[in-house]
Design goal:
14% helix; five-stranded antiparallel β-sheet; 4 helices; elongated; 307 residues; disordered N terminus; four-stranded antiparallel β-sheet; Chitinase A, domain 3; mainly beta
């Protein structure tokens, strides 16, 4: 009896295996590529030539870019496109989200979208009072680009020749000239009195070392000067002096930012956005990647790129 039961179960198992092997497999791949019939060949893609009208505005309605000449003039824009704006998608040289807005759309479409900031706000917090040493060291040897040398000294560089300018406090002797640079040695003597570039007071050469000179700055106490942040007042002490800044809220100033490795960026425009008792805040001015924008567009024409 037991053998008969086992034989019956074995027959059922073999029959089930045959049924499974002969049954068509179900396709579980749900990420099949669309057929050619599903691809919209008229939709805008990278490389297409698009002609459009557009207005880019801040959330408060301030127009920051447009090809509408009348609106641009009314908004005080200095540089703007006139007439239909033509560009190759992904090569407009505008913010990245400008091109991305057009992708997938069609000729004749128009609309308004919100563009999120692409980068964090670029801000700097500056102390209103800063301290500077009166004694400073300046390298004797200086490198000029060939172009800047000729602009400053109004003549071509010649080795061992002397060069001087009213815009620079010291005379220089040319040491070496290359295709792109001029290397010169500062000529300074102990006791010389000069006004350093970027200062409003005299400085005296204390010591002339082999590779640098030591100078002492002599600003006047309570002297009022003009700085990149606006007016400032000097307070003089024995070995140092303080500058107290009086920035004007809303003023646009030139400012460079120091990176982690100590290098400074190029000068960019910043707006003074906040003034406190101890410091003030600068925010990068007219820098669209940090802004939330409202983008109005009208697609006039599309010329598809050749694949």
């Amino acid at each position: 009896m037991r053998k008969a039961i086992l034989l019956f179960l074995l027959v059922l198992f073999i029959a089930g295996c045959n049924n499974f092997m002969n049954k068509p497999m179900k396709d579980t791949n749900t990420s099949l590529a669309p057929s050619l019939d599903d691809i919209d060949e008229t939709a805008i893609r990278k490389g297409d030539l698009v002609s459009a009208n557009y207005v880019l505005s801040l959330e408060d309605g301030t127009v920051v870019d447009t090809n509408n000449a009348e609106l641009a003039k009314k908004s005080g824009l200095k540089n703007y496109a006139t007439g239909p704006y033509k560009f190759i998608v992904d090569q407009s040289n505008k913010i990245k989200s400008f091109d991305e807005t057009f992708m997938g759309k069609h000729s004749g479409e128009n609309g308004t979208v919100s563009l999120s900031p692409l980068e964090p706000e670029q801000k700097s917090r500056i102390p209103r009072e800063q301290t500077f040493k009166r004694n400073i060291r300046i390298p004797i040897y200086r490198r000029f680009s060939l172009e800047s040398f000729e602009n400053i000294f109004k003549k071509p560089p010649i080795v061992r020749d002397l060069a001087f300018s009213n815009d620079i406090p010291f005379k220089y002797q040319i040491v070496n000239v290359t295709d792109s640079s001029v290397y010169a040695k500062m000529l300074a003597n102990t006791g010389d009195e000069v006004t350093l570039e970027g200062t409003y007071w005299s400085s005296i050469v204390l010591t002339n070392f082999e590779k640098e000179i030591l100078l002492r700055q002599n600003p006047e106490d309570n002297q009022e000067i003009t700085t990149q942040f606006g007016n400032a007042v000097v307070h003089v002490y024995l070995g140092y002096f303080n500058l107290t800044y009086y920035p004007e809220l809303g003023a646009v100033v030139n400012h460079s930012v120091q990176s982690v490795n100590g290098q400074y960026s190029s000068l960019f425009e910043y707006e003074i956005r906040e003034v406190n008792e101890h410091d003030f805040v600068l925010r990068r001015y007219n820098y669209l990647p940090q802004e939330k924008l409202v983008f109005e567009y009208e697609i006039l024409d599309v010329i598809k790129s050749v694949k």
